[in-house]
Write a structure and sequence with these properties.
Bound molecules: pyridoxal-5'-phosphate
Helix content: 40-55%
Largest sheet: 6 strands, mixed
Number of helices: 11
Order of helices and strands: EHEHEHEHHEHEHEHEHEHHE
Radius of gyration: 19 Å
Structural class: alpha/beta
Strand content: 15-25%
Strand order of the largest sheet: 1-2-10-7-8-9
Length: 344
Amino acid sequence: MHLARFPRISLAHLPTPIEPLPRLSAALGGPEIWIKRDDCTGLSTGGNKTRKLEFLMAEALAEGADMVMTQGATQSNHARQTAAAAARLGLGCHILLEDRTGSKAHNYNHNGNVLLDHLHGATTEMCPSGGDMNAVMEKVAAERRKTGASVYTIPGGGSNPTGALGYVNAALEMLGQVNEAGLAIDHIVHATGSAGTQAGLATGLAAMNANIPLLGIGVRAPQAKQEENVFALAAATAEKLGCPGAVTRGDVVANCDYVGDGYGIPTPGCLEAIALFAECEGILLDPVYSAKAAAGLIDMIRGGDFTAGQRVMFLHTGGAAALFGYDGAFDMTGKWTGSTAEAA
Ligand SMILES: *Cc1c(COP(=O)(O)O)cnc(C)c1O
């Protein structure tokens, strides 16, 4: 496995820090929890898509693109990081935003990531939910090409084998850090959506024979579908890397019990997770991805799936910019019911 063979540009502040979470660990009374801060990748408030964009944008430049196009939910962090990367490289950026939640709230539709998309100079168009968004985007791209634009399209979440290389690189980086620090890790836990993060991590960990179990907590699809998506992308990523077959089906594990009413709809557990991380550790989670993953982690600790004596690494994938689109989910008078940080 030799990542330097693939075109890459530097967009992220790397390596991202690894930190202990002593107050959160004490509050939950289970395993020692550590965090890998991919919310601190630096590009326009950071997040996991920046690692993928290092490889995707290099490919766009190599192909001579003058603009990129991508798609995501209204409060897509991927869209915002893509808009910022395009701005940095002097490329145009057009984004299709899918109305997955039906929210009519002003801040959901105009603040948070949407505000940042526009500040970075991207143009956006809203699309109804339910269609094949990558197919819709290819149609829009074909129209632009007819008028002379050289468009590089990036699938939702930047999740293809090129983007997943960013998380192969993250696996390498994380292993280097924990090996250097003498920090043996029993489990890695993170949010999984469009699958590129988990597929890249699984590929990198398998290629290095790390034998660290990886758990993706789903935010949208049911478990069987999510695992199938991750495994297919991991297989394609391993193929691209020159280590075909490195990832086995058993390496891909997702828990999709914490989606709640649907993608982008906060759950009581996710609001509690936001409160716990914010009040115990001064760390911001987002209600769509990282807090649903944290809610899963917290519930599994309470259920005895992770126990005292173990060390769990929570990969923070970012997303806090979306909080400003979700102010209505919080009781702004102070604490909202569900916060247990007080009891800690
Ligand atoms: C996109 C995203 C994820 C999920 O990563 P995938 O590679 O799409 O599975 C997790 N957390 C945040 C904050 C994201 O924006």
